[in-house]
Hints:
Elements: E1 3-5, E2 12-16, H1 23-31, E3 49-55, E4 58-64, H2 81-95, E5 98-104, H3 111-121, E6 126-132, E7 153-154, H4 163-173, H5 183-186, E8 191-197, H6 203-211, E9 229-235, E10 238-244, H7 264-277, E11 281-287, H8 294-305, E12 309-315, H9 324-337, E13 346-348, H10 360-371, H11 377-390, E14 396-397, E15 404-405, E16 409-414, E17 421-426, H12 434-448, E18 456-461
Parallel strand pairs: 2-4, 2-5, 5-6, 6-7, 8-10, 8-11, 11-12, 12-13, 17-18
Antiparallel strand pairs: 1-9, 3-4, 9-10, 14-15, 16-17
Amino acid sequence: MPLTTIKSNLPLVAIIGRVNVGKSTLFNKLIEQRKALVSKSPGTTRDLNFGLAEWSGKKFEIADSGGIFEKKITAKNHDTIDFQVEKKAREIIERADLILFLVDAQSGLLAKDRLIAQLIKKTKKLIILAVNKIDQHNKDISEFKKLGLGQPIGIAAASGVGVGDLMDEIIKILKHKNTKTLKQKNARIAVRVSIIGRPNVGKSSLLNAILGEERVIVSPIPHTTREPQNTLLEFDSHLIELIDTAGIRKKAKISTGRHNQATLESQGVGMSIAALKKSEIALFVLNASENFSSQDAELARLIIESGVSVIIIANKYDLLEKSTENVKALQSYVNNFFHFLSFAPVVLTSADTGRNCQKILSLVLEVYKERRKQILAAELKNLTDYLMKKMPPPKQTKIFGGRKRRAFIQEIYQKTTDRPIFIIETINKVKIPESYLRYLENNIRARYKFFGTPIKIVVDRLPMSSSRKRGSHG
């Protein structure tokens, strides 16, 4: 089934410049959220980062890019991260409707600024020249007129000084472009799918394989992906937002900066976890060519605790010796290691060759449908009445002591949410043991599946005088 990557109909503004001139800081300021990582380390931004900016009722798409002309690109280093960062930056220059060329008042006019100016002049694109960090150095910015790109606009991206004037200029230049979004497609709600896993299990390669294009930078170097990368696509008449995330490893192994300041890795991991918690489904990527680790198990539990549905992706299985016995052994190993994810489907993939990657989006829609399944109240009552008659809650000591009694279950119902949550209402203070909750959960799942989705059961103790009292069990 064909998929289509959704392209914005809004004009695209690309922020271009050397490293450490403040491109990501400006990007975050323009979209009014912290989406791009910011640090003093050169080359922090690698992949392209896209966001939506709005000013005076007008909207445009904006792209943050890595620094260019940082290292000489040769035939020997065309597979390096530096080459891929440079390639992505040049690609966005070609795609942009307007180039926002950012330079640094603190550094002054440098040779690399001149090289970039020459490059973007050749494109014949619309260009705005902005000089950043003017609040740090009250110097004359007129020297940047030598670039031949017109009157520079002085700004301080960190504090917001001059950013309003910059936005006015952007809207003025884009006045003949369509700055209104098309609502008929993008008004639909997309299924948010996070790609989660340890570093170097093939998450970015998997995204590229699903899309059939080089959307994100791929490298054997751990932590190549530093911040979530969102891609909106349409598949089988549904919108799906795939989110590639930074690899997550144990906190003890994540280094901290001076005075315990957050490092790039720790910030990226924080963004990955935040993206996971905002998702409906996680593609949990594992390296099938090596033994699973305790970190894989911790990530699996994090996924369950986040309440998202899950599809297990055993990637790199092409590195195993190809035989039916090995495939069966791998399936068995996955099922045994992640026995607490027995409800999750498992897909054996090779992101490098694309094998089985085409099955993932269909599975996403199947799991999403199961996640939103609502059981009719009458059906659920009949099932739970039968289960409690077959095996009533075991007698327990009341919270404040006394003789053993059963929990007085008044009602069990499914909460109207985007995930299966069941509420058990009781009107006495006798605890329901975890084993009995698992008994109910297992039987609900046996009847209604909820394929790929964790079930949550919540006990709600009501006062004895509850007006909702309709009957008793036990």
